[in-house]
Write a structure and sequence with these properties.
The protein has one helix at about 35-50, and strands at about 1-15, 20-30, 60-65. It is α+β, with helices and mostly antiparallel strands. The chain has a 3-stranded antiparallel beta sheet with strand order 2-1-3.
Length: about 70
């Protein structure tokens, strides 16, 4: 198992009128691979936000594998 941090990101319009991206949520999971990590995080995100579809509150997600050996 590997450890992953998944960030849910949303594009918003900033005060200066320019588009910016903000982090909606970060979720840590243990999974066999990036795909499994993303699916687990989507479920947790929906549960914590009380929504049925993660993309209702985020435009994209970013999966980062954590390396504890360094």
């Amino acid at each position: 198992m590997s450890h992953f941090i998944i960030e849910f990101l949303k594009k918003v319009l900033g005060d200066n009128g320019r588009e910016d991206e903000i982090r909606q949520c970060s979720i840590e999971v243990d999974a066999s691979n990036r795909t499994e990590a993303a699916e687990l995080a989507k479920g947790k995100f929906c549960q914590t936000q009380r929504i049925s579809e993660w993309s209702d509150h985020a435009d994209r997600l970013e999966v980062k594998e954590v390396d504890f050996t360094s």
